[in-house]
Amino acid sequence: MSLLEKLKKSSRTAGAEILSESKFFSEKEMTTTSVPMINVALSGSTKGGISSGLTVLAGPSKHFKTSFALLMAGAYMKKHKDAVLMFYDSEFGSPQSYFESFGIDTTRVLHTPVTNIEELKFDLVHQLTEIDRKDKVIVVIDSIGNIASKKEIEDAENMKSVADMTRAKALKGLFRMITPFLTLKDIPLLAVNHTYQTQEMFSKAVVSGGTGVMYSANDVWIIGRRQDKTGTEVQGYHFIINIEKSRFVKEKSKIPISVSWDGGIEKWSGLLDLALETGYVVKPKNGWYMAMNPATKEELSGNLRAAQTMTEEFWTNIFDKTDFEKAIEKRYKVAHVSMLEELRTKDETLTKEVVEDEDS
């Protein structure tokens, strides 16, 4: 028996495993959604998607945060016919029809109302300890941005108006406790959150809830929006997913997603601007678009209006006949290069600069 096998056998931790054989790395699952640019925001690739761990969707009110969460949850439940959605609700702003509009079978949703952070913590930690890795479960919390601490409620009952200094600590404790379970049991958790503006001269949006949320999250989105108008009439919104933190996507990336009143999330939104920038779509004349293979200069479509490009046929043609997917990954995906090679290259560059300085 090798020393490594001996140490593995004597370990008192059930999950101890040789790294190259560890299921916590080799069996990490990704669930692809129906919207390519949502997959890009989650993984840096249209073929990727949501995986285990904490994903925080932050932004002001009415920024489609819950809808994005339910879109992902719906994709997960569609992939796993026996999956269960645990929906922790502190806002009660999502009627049953809202779930159904994202294809979620409400008979497989455990709706758990919570009134404070401690109540959420006790129930969620207990549920996670009872779940096996083979169980297919996805968790949505709506929201951590609007949930009070137990002390806040007790102060209100006792007519105390003192500021609550325990809320951020309580949230940090919650995520510190559940983070290992999410990875060990391969469970995605989507937490809706709020943002606030800093008081600097040039203010910026910051995720609420303290540092615990940022430390524990695999992915943090800050969602912005602008109106989609025809004349003075609002047709919907153009959302921008700002990647504040990610293990797969380059931070500070901006992912555009459009939502209309009539059709909901526009499946192919965000791709046209990116294809124009990278040469996979060209504009023969103003207002017209044509699919193109930039490597061969082959025309892949006739001249089309912008609305006519929002079809599966148009984009499938581009993805199948070009390396557009590679261009997307190069633009957004975090590259996993050899750290030793990177350090060696930097050292060589520094040595070269020193030699050049001495020669001069």
What are the key terms here?
single chain, 360 residues, alpha/beta, 3-stranded antiparallel beta sheet, globular
Outline the structure in words.
The protein is 38% helix and 21% strand. It has 13 helices and 14 strands. The chain has helices at 3-10, 23-26, 36-43, 65-79, 96-101, 117-130, 150-157, 167-184, 211-216, 271-278, 312-321, 324-332, 339-359, and strands at 53-58, 84-89, 109-113, 137-142, 188-193, 195-197, 205-207, 219-230, 233-245, 254-260, 264-265, 281-282, 290-293, 298-299. The protein has a nine-stranded mixed sheet. A three-stranded antiparallel sheet has the order 12-13-14. It is globular, with a radius of gyration of 24 Å. The model has no long low-confidence stretch (mean pLDDT 89).
Structural Rg: 24 Å
What is the overall pLDDT average?
A: 89
What fraction strand?
15-25%
Quaternary organization: single chain
* Lateral arrangement of strands in the main beta sheet: 3-2-4-5-1-8-9-10-11
Helix content: 25-40%
The DSSP helix count reads 13
Structural class: alpha/beta
Our measurement of the CA-to-CA distance between the termini, rounded to an integer number of angstroms, reads 60 Å
Shape category? globular
Extract low-pLDDT stretches.
none
Strand tally is 14
Q: Largest sheet at a glance?
A: 9 strands, mixed
N-to-C SSE string, H for helix and E for strand: HHHEHEHEHEHHEEEHEEEEHEEEHHH
Outline:
This protein has helices at residues 3-10, 23-26, 36-43, 65-79, 96-101, 117-130, 150-157, 167-184, 211-216, 271-278, 312-321, 324-332, 339-359, and strands spanning 53-58, 84-89, 109-113, 137-142, 188-193, 195-197, 205-207, 219-230, 233-245, 254-260, 264-265, 281-282, 290-293, 298-299.
